[in-house]
Amino acid sequence: MSFVLRGLALSVFCLTIVFASCKHTDETNISAHNDTESHNMGKNCMHCHKVGGDGKGWFTAAGTVYDSIGNSRISNGTIRLWTSLDANRILRATIDVDGNGNFFTTENIDYTTGLYPEITGTSGDVRTMTTPIAQGACNSCHDGQGTPRIWVR
After folding, report:
1. Interatomic CA distance for residues 10 and 12, integer angstroms
2. Could you give the CA distance from residue 123 to residue 6 in angstroms, rounded to a whole number?
């Protein structure tokens, strides 16, 4: 009987470890215009919003948008991810920039063929990245140190 109880205890322990390491992966967390609940502007969102991370939801794309100088955040813009730059391009994702200048989504995004990000500001200004991305941790590159921040007018 003792052997059975030890086996049961080991099974419960293993299940606890599995569920604890998968926390927040099934939570939906998507930015919306005017929302101001986001945080850590300019930081790499995927440090926490990843499988096993402490952030709510596993982000597939996230970042922060600034003005052309890179000092002030721009709110309520729109990020679009396209399959190419030509006229035959296909829209793969649309993500709202929130009231704090952050954008993020837990929706599934397929980056296997590379996607071209485009940002539209509330002024109508549009900026397109001319090289494809293979992942959505935008602030990991656009940190304002080595690579300019994401910006729009």
Report:
1. 5
2. 65
Query: Measured between alpha carbons, how far is 88 from 84 in angstroms, rounded to an integer?
Result: 8
25: pLDDT confidence band, cut at 50, 70 and 90? low
- Is residue 78 within 8 A of residue 121, CB to CB? The reply is no
Which residues face 93 on adjacent strands?
A: 81
142-147 contacts, C-beta under 8 A, 24 or more apart = 142/63, 143/42, 143/44, 144/42, 144/66, 144/70
Tell me the chain's radius of gyration from C-alpha atoms. Answer: 19
pLDDT 10s digits, 38-60: 999 999 999 999 999 999 999 99
Among candidates 87, 3, 73, which has minimal Cα distance to 38?
73
In the prediction, which pLDDT does 128 show? Answer: 97
Number of structural domains (the chain) is 1
Domain with 34, as residue range(s), is: 2-151
* Single pTM value for the model: 0.83
pLDDT at 9: 45
